[in-house]
Amino acid sequence: NRQDELHDKITNYLQSKDVHQKICQEIKIKIESDDIEINGMDCDRKGYCEGYDYDETIIENVSEVDFWLNSVDDLNEETITLSVICNAKISAICMYKDFESSIWDSEEKEYIFLMQEEMREEHQPEFECILKFMVSREEKDINFILSDINYSMTLDQETRTNRIYVEPEDPEIDARGEMMDALEEYYKH
Question: How far apart are CA 99 and CA 145, in angstroms?
């Protein structure tokens, strides 16, 4: 009977617009603070892959976070664990080494200048999230405090909605790239 009461209270609690927005904001903050890996490769059903092998990703923006209750997984007097299905829009800067445009020194067996390129990728994943709430009782009132957020998210060709090459903003990088091109031409002759 007390578990039924807790179940009803938590589901009603989640239906409150203010609570829903607050939890969405907490999920957004969690995603922004995590180190999320993005797979830049596109593979077809025959196993042929092309794309970018990213060295580093930086989450630029997380927006339009929303969720809906999937199940109440664990319910006791102190804690409640819920599974929710979330979706969000995520924009990230993804960096990779451009070996094809870089200059190789065959004598030293190393790159003289290794180009670092950037792509901006936008994703719209749907993912499962586990929310853990602490239960606090004050006389007849029951309060819920969000204590933990865990999720499993894959950002790849299935969730990607857009990919844009980011032009380098630093003129020094452009100048060094042109200088390396000139050196390469010089060594070819």
Answer: 50
Q: What's the angle, vertex CA 45, arms to CA 40 and CA 47, rounded to 5?
A: 65
Rounded (10°) angle between helices 2-15 and 17-33: 80
Q: For each successive 10 residues of the chain (189 residues), what is the average pLDDT?
A: 86 94 96 92 89 92 96 92 97 89 78 83 97 89 93 94 85 68 72
Tokens 């865990």 -> residue: 150
Q: Which amino acid is at 99?
A: F
Tokens for 14, please give them. 């989640």
Residues in the chain: 189
Geometric angle at alpha carbon 67, from 66 and 69, rounded to 5°: 165
Helix (H) or strand (E) holding 115: strand 110-123
Backbone angles phi, psi at 176, to 5 degrees: -65, -40
pLDDT of 21 reads 97
